[in-house]
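Thread title: Can someone regenerate the structure for this chain?

I was given the following input by a collaborator and told the matching structure tokens would be attached. They weren't. Posting the sequence so someone can regenerate them.
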Amino acid sequence: MAWSNLAAQSAEQVALAAAPIVAVLAFGADAGATGLLQTAQTLPYLLLSVPAGVLADRGSRRRLMAGAEALRALALAGVLTLTHAGLLTLPLLALCGFVGACGTVAEANGRVELARTLAFAGGPALAGALVGWTGGTPAFGVAAALSIAAVVLLSGVREPARPPVASRRVLHDVCDGATFVFGHPLLRPIFLTQLVFNTAAFVLQAVYVPYAVHRLGLSALGVGLTLATYGVGMVVGALLAPRIMRVVPFGLVIVLGPIAGLAAGLVMVLTLWVGTGWLAAFSFFLLGAGPIVWVISTATLRQTVTPAELLGRASALSMTATGARPIGAALGALLGASYGVETCLVVAAVGFFVQAVLIVASPVPALTRQPLTVA
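Best answer:
Regenerated them for you:
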């Protein structure tokens, strides 16, 4: 499972990093265009997360993941075919990105999450290097090969048998999950914080590549390396998370992620006056290191306070908060096209401030230890 997740996440990160770099360097895309590209690549999080959660609770999770990953492989193969035929355009790249994102599987904690962090560390750097040295085609080819490898590995996963789920309307299932999450005093502020965080993060992500190329003067490889520090931060945070959770009260561990997000936003704003790739890299490092501790600790919290029969839907709602990404990307596209990338960086920092206030003002920081597991 961990190896299949590493291959799948690596495929996703290579493709996600390569697409805006190719858009800027090959198609001359500006901040508005790259923002719309990011919107297309993240829209499935908003549209499909809850239905996927219902399917995960009702049927075979192995088949669901393998089928989703096969869909991503087909989308990447489509990019390769269009490129070789000389037919690839920015709208078609966005369309393939949308289809590929429909194959993104849910996040998890523990070893699977660590595999994901490694993909975030290596994927953007590899994409930047491939685009800079050989053009975009090899990057998408590598991503397609990794995606196919993930399908093969997933086919060997043995899924434990589960009791059959009573046949009910899908809307009823969705409402059960939403009622539980929004009615829970701990899960509700976590959902809202994640919603605002992802919006702010993708306002930043939407305009970063053109900002890095035109304002910071970075090459394709330089852009990939700065994006890769996000993954390096995730690796560091994931490795330190168990030790942090042993010595720091559980509620404060959760708060660390939003605080690090705020620091990352402020550091990126600082690049407006100190235009260096090192500061941008440090911002992405903070954006990875703190929030990965958030991901691991909040996933643990969600799994301990959520009844087993609702876990897929509760996790899907968490992914719906991740669905704020296309909203942030669209907002970045609008602001970038109308007011410039500088405004986007400031708006992202304001969003990071809001999400930090939301979690600090909630009951979560008062948790001294992990809650007891719900049967």
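The radius of gyration is 20 Å.
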